[in-house]
Amino acid sequence: MTTIGRHTDQQGRSTGERITAVKRATPLTDTHHTAATHLLDALLDAAAAHGVTLDDLDWVDDLPGTCVDVIRHTSRDGDR
Prior knowledge:
Elements: H1 15-20, H2 30-48, H3 54-58, H4 63-75
Helix pairs in contact: 2-4
């Protein structure tokens, strides 16, 4: 399952599609995918207030990949 998300990049890919495209050794669970998409959308909501888009952030970092890593880290072993 792919959560679509609320934002798109210049190529028309939704935040959910960008999360799906993140390549890691272990595939994402549906729960992690949804959480990472929601986190990415929330960060982009905040960035929009400053006129910053996902494409702008792509010049600096892999924000979708960072969201996946953060969600996996915060949910590992049920610690948080």
